[in-house]
Amino acid sequence: MGNAVFRYFLEWLRVQMQHEAYARYAQQAEHAIATAAVSSHHRGPFWRGRAIYRNIVGGRENNTHTAEEDEIFVDFTRAFEPDATEKSKSNHQNKENRMEDDDETNSAGSTRKYPKLWELAKMEGDSQWIDWLGKHVWTYVGLAAPLLGAPGPLRSVLSGENMGLPFTDEEARILELSFGSTSSVNPIPTKMGFCDDPDDREDSRRAKRNKSKSRKEQNRNLACLDELVSDIEARANETYNPWQDYPALRLLLKDRVDYDSAFPMIRVEREFCDESEKSPCANQTAIDFSAQDVMNGNIFDQFSNIWKEEKDPLGVKLEQLQDSWWKGNVPNMLESTPERPHIKHVVMAYGTDVPTEAGYIYKKIDRKPNPSNNTTSAEGKEAFDGVPEMHKVIWEEKHGRIIEESMPEPSTFTESILFKKKQTRRPFNSGDSSLWLHHSGDGTIPYLSLMWAHTWLLHATRAMRSTNHTMPMLEGERISNPHNALDSIKVSHRPKGGNDWIQGYGADPRVDENYDYSSRSNIGDTGTSHPHGTKYKPKMVRFQSEGKSRSTGMEYTTTVIEAIGVEHKETTRNYDILAAAFTDVLKNLNEDYGLV
Fold it and tell me: Is 452 helix (H, G, I), strand (E, B) or coil?
């Protein structure tokens, strides 16, 4: 949760600095209007935005005005008259776009009164934001960060989860529905990190609704992830596999895995039965929900329609999601994959290969009502369905194997808390997990969400490949072959029980072909049974890259560390993970400041 909070803080700080810059510009502009001082010989400090513009399009040592700048100055002068701006907008926007603009204006206050000044303010705010980060944040260490969210908190909202506490899931759900923080880790589809979305119109609408940029605009100074694949694939031949040491990046970039690639993240199985018909009934349907249905709120609306609950708690949750994330000033971070933050050193570390919940199947039986009855109870109140019933849990197990587990129907209060009844477990989809991953998550966060950190290793290469010629950056050092984005990533591993790091990824983790699907006794120690509370010397794999900012010249590094078999809560106290992460930090401290 702390990683999600930090990401929100960074977005909030960026917007705050943009709005502060805009407020200064607007105040100076209105003062200029009031004093009729908008002229070529009295531009004053208000026009220091021109300096920003000059730095972006290429610096000049003198202050001569170009025809291009004079034209921009005229545009700024026209922008001082809001009525003229609104009139211009009404001439070329249709009714639908005007309604969207009204919503945006209502939520963002007066930030669109002078749109050209707002563009300048965003540029200055971004510059101040990067300067602030460079001054105040030297290193970011993310432990077990759910970069793409997790289905677990969604389960707690849909049907409840007691998390081992002495009350039922239904009782826990009442509490969990009141937590606005559960939305901060909603699953985010991986497709939001790519630019080749076939529905560009929907992407533009989403960006407009959330006062943010579309994916293509967001990647204006970075090559899109999908642009890297062709160059990497071009180097493959019969004897060389460029993806060999980068299985996570192959899955994300080439195979484009997502939450619903191999199984439904959320499925609702419905049976429509006659009054006397026994389950399973002849008339059956299934509805699948992806991470995108969570992102746009569709899953809450559909569940609310399928299960009629008193006071419509999921409808309330949808409104809470809209108020907290869609209507605020901060761009909705639940609708975009996280990019590497503008911080000098970033270290991401997490555990893998611990059984993790990755999907849920719910079941609803609808019986045709008896014509002699009505839809109200004896007291005249409307009949409700109760809390959605979870039927199965889909687990990702060691080496990425997928298991489905049937949830027994508890008959007593004790069983509802402790689940004393034996659960039925079997391979999902007849054991075919070829479309899934080479690891499982850390027991709480699915591996798909954790491994998104690998895309941060490509930040330097993506920046070097920028093709934006209208706003060029300072010349930066090219640290990798432009035809293979993976060349700049160094890979090393530390064998289980070992002390030294060895170059290369190591043995394929999926070599154990005799794994027992049905028994959880073969999972192995996740760390909690060790006398010191940690799993000792697990196998670890480390990925490292470095780059140089084209805009500031700052040299930066990115490290991703995977520890096999370490559970989520153990990440913050596992000696080996902390030693690996902070050894990297101490090395950077010595290289940057000579203090160690």
Answer: helix
Distance CA 349, CA 451 (A): 10
Going by C-beta distance under 8 Å and a sequence separation of 6 or more, which residues neighbour residue 419? 408, 410
Percent helix, strand and coil across the chain, each to the nearest 5:
40, 15, 45
Give the count of beta carbons closer than 10 Å to the beta carbon of residue 412: 10
Say how far apart CA 11 and CA 337 lie, in whole Å. 13
What's the angle, vertex CA 75, arms to CA 74 and CA 77, rounded to 5?
65
Q: Which helix (H) or strand (E) holds 558?
A: strand 555-564
Whose tokens are 């920046």? That residue is 463
Q: Could you read off the pLDDT of 368-413 as tens digits, one per residue?
A: 776 655 555 545 456 777 889 899 999 999 888 899 998 876 555 5
Query: Model pTM?
Result: 0.81
**Does 289 have pLDDT greater than 50?**
yes
Q: Say which residues have a Cβ less than 8 Å from residue 101's Cβ, sequence separation at least 6.
A: 89, 93, 112
Q: Is the pLDDT of residue 489 over 90?
A: yes
Q: What is the pLDDT of residue 349?
A: 96
CB 253 within 8 A of CB 226: yes
E strand or H helix at 559, and its extent?
Answer: strand 555-564
